[in-house]
Amino acid sequence: MSDRVLIVRAEYGEVKESRVVDGDILQVVRSIAREALEEWDPASSDYVIVKDRYEVSIKLPLTKEQFERYSKYGLRRGQGVASFDIPVYMVSFSNEWRGDSYRDKKVYLITIYVDEEVESEVKEFAAETTREAEG
How would you write the chain as a 3-class SS string? Predict the structure, then answer.
């Protein structure tokens, strides 16, 4: 089944690329993982893919299309909102350890495209993930 998939690339605290493609999210993750693998420098960095979940809340009522799209992600009804968890994959291919701290310098975040608001949140998360810690 085809989904709309959001791909965000962040480097050093900035979003460098954001695009939405149609396809199976697992196939998109594999494709981006191969792309990132070509950029990875095994002499200076780990190569890591992490799967997580991101909770999304949208106002009720839902359209029939929204219900069909999001019901496969554990759709729940709350007080005036519907909530569901979308998968988020982070592909980190440029990172470093400094003592006990770890920093991602370049990542891809791949998830289901929901709307512009969620896209904005994912972009901010990607940028924050790669931002240099102060102090």
Answer: CCEEEEEEEEECCEEEEEEEEEECHHHHHHHHHHHHHHHCCCCCCCCEEEEEEEEEEEECCCCHHHHHHHHHHCCEECCCEEEEEEEEEEEEEEEEEECCEEEEEEEEEEEECCCHHHHHHHHHHHHHHHCCCCC
Tokens of 56: 């999304």
Tens-digit pLDDT profile for residues 88-107: 999 999 999 888 888 999 99
Angstrom distance (rounded) from CA 119 to CA 110: 11
Instruction: Express each pLDDT in 39-54 by its tens digit.
Output: 999 999 999 999 999 9
